[in-house]
Structures are given as structure tokens and as C-alpha cells.
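Re: that backbone. C-alpha cells:
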């Protein structure tokens, strides 16, 4: 049951599934045996549940979280973009183009003062200027762009509350 972006459905899960998901969000490399012990299930039952959660698309994948400073991405910029229009063709063209920029960590269609909010990882402000000049200013339909730089990350998690 793979979903396309923008499609929503609730997958029913119980307290064991929630416990499995909570642990996996924080420790994606935990062994099945350790996971099963942690959530008080047999290894085979735990494995079946993880497979079901993967198949149903609740678990979309597993990643390694990197320290941005150690991979020379010390500058985080949030870019608010307002487009010149709201036609589906323009939105589609913008979204397709922005998805090809490797420095963009996330892009969100917004309700509010801007149409899109981008999170951009750069080496420093000079590198951001390059990203801005070579990529962001060339995005289709951009009417306005406002950038804010993060001074310090106070809270950051990928774990959703369950």
C-alpha cells in the first residue's frame, strides 16, 4: 500500500506497533532480537510487525543522520518563496525543479505568507550565495524570496510523537 505524496490514510496500529516505531525512530540499527526484547514480543512476532509496518508504508526507510558540521554544512538557511501564480502547471514545474537541487533538505507547500518554505544546507554564507545564484533564482515562477539563517539549532528530531 504505497502512497503518493499528498495522499493520506491512517494505518491502524496497536501499542506494540507504537513501541516498535518509537524505538526504531531513535535506534534504526537495533537488532530484531534487541527490539523484540525492548517491546516485550517474541523475535518472530516483532519481525512480522516490522515487515507489515514497512509494507504498509508506515516505515518509509532507514537512514544515517549526519552531523552537518562534520560534513562541512555549517549554515542552515530557511527560504520563504512566493510564486507569481498558483496554476497547477506552475506549482508542478516549481516542485519538479526544486526537487533537483541537492542542497535543499526539505520543501514544504505552505499556507500563510509564503507559498513554499525550503530548508537549505550550505557550507557557509558564500556557499549559500552560490546556491542562491545558481539554483534558487532560476526556479520557475518565483516572485519573491526571503531568507533567514539559523544561528543555532535548539531542538531537532526526526522522531514523530506516537
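Recovered sequence:
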Amino acid at each position: 500500500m504505497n502512497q503518493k505524496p499528498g495522499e493520506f490514510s491512517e494505518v491502524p496500529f496497536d501499542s506494540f506497533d507504537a513501541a516498535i516505531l518509537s524505538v526504531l525512530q531513535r535506534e534504526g540499527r537495533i537488532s530484531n532480537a534487541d527490539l523484540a526484547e525492548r517491546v516485550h514480543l517474541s523475535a518472530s512476532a516483532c519481525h512480522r510487525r516490522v515487515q507489515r509496518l514497512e509494507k504498509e508504508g508506515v516505515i518509509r526507510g532507514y537512514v544515517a543522520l549526519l552531523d552537518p558540521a562534520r560534513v562541512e554544512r555549517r549554515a542552515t538557511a530557511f527560504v520563504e518563496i512566493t510564486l507569481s501564480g498558483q496554476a497547477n502547471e506552475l506549482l508542478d514545474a516549481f516542485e519538479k525543479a526544486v526537487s533537483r537541487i541537492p542542497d535543499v533538505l526539505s520543501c514544504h507547500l505552505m499556507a500563510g505568507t509564503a507559498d513554499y518554505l525550503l530548508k537549505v544546507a550550505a557550507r557557509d554564507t558564500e556557499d549559500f550565495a552560490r546556491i542562491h545564484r545558481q539554483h534558487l533564482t532560476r526556479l520557475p515562477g518565483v516572485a519573491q524570496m526571503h531568507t533567514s539563517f539559523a544561528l543555532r539549532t535548539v531542538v531537532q528530531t526526526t522522531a514523530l510523537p506516537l
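Residues 68-149 form a domain with the Alpha-Beta Plaits fold (CATH 3.30.70.920). The beta strands are 75-83, 104-109, 116-122, 142-149.
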